[in-house]
Amino acid sequence: RWRCEKCRDYDLCHGCYGEGKHSRGHQFWRFTFPGDDGVLVKARSGCPKVQSVGLFEGARVKRGAHWNDEDYKHQDGDDGIGTVFAVSDSNTAFQSTIIVEWPDGSKYGYCYGIGGRVDLKCVTPRHGPQFYPDHLSPLKSETSIQAKVS
Fold first, then answer.
1. Distance CA 77, CA 96 (A)
2. Where does 2-134 show beta strands of DSSP type E?
3. Distance CA 67, CA 120 (A)
4. What is the pLDDT along the chain (150 residues), one digit of tens a residue?
5. 110 with 102: CB under 8 angstroms?
6. pTM of the predicted model over 0.85
7. Given 26, 90, 122, 143, which residue has the most CB atoms within 10 angstroms?
């Protein structure tokens, strides 16, 4: 979540922040987790912006490192290529559920980072939201993030 330093009751989600909503000349507080004290970042005006690429809606995927036929019972039609239908983020930045539509029209959810599992491999990535790399929180280990969330 992002909160404007100048306009106290003005918050943005990460997507809207990256799209440049609200004044790009205002500084914002970055809140990574609920209860986080926040970090004040410089104004977005003049900061470099980067296009994300990867597992976003429309990306093409196949079986990944942790694909298990006992769990998924050949849902992909035996080594098929599916299309990412939706991405459902969990309450932390490093895990998601990816909903895939397979060639037969069926849709199923798969782990991507949850419990360290990566059920899918990206074959053809898609563009996601743009972001300001200098404004992101530093990467931490899963253990330290879990401790902060708890």
1. 23
2. 2-4, 11-12, 28-30, 39-41, 50-54, 60-63, 82-89, 96-101, 107-112, 120-124, 126-131
3. 7
4. 899 999 978 999 888 898 889 999 999 999 987 888 999 999 999 999 999 999 899 999 998 888 887 877 788 887 789 999 998 765 554 557 889 999 999 999 888 877 778 889 999 999 988 889 989 887 664 444 444 443
5. no
6. no
7. 122
Q: Which two tokens stand for residue 137?
A: 């929180």
Token representation of residue 97: 């559920």
If phi over 0 gives left and psi between -120 and 50 gives alpha, with beta otherwise, what is residue 109? beta
Cα–Cα distance for residue pair 120/115, rounded to 1 Å: 14
Whose CA is closest to 98, among 5, 90, 40? 90
Q: Which amino acid is at 109?
A: G
Q: Tell me the two tokens of residue 9.
A: 């009751």
- Ramachandran region of residue 113, left (φ > 0), alpha (ψ -120 to 50) or beta? left
pLDDT digits (tens, 9 = 90+) for 82-121: 999 998 765 554 557 889 999 999 999 888 877 778 889 9
Query: What one-character DSSP code corresponds to residue 141?
Result: -
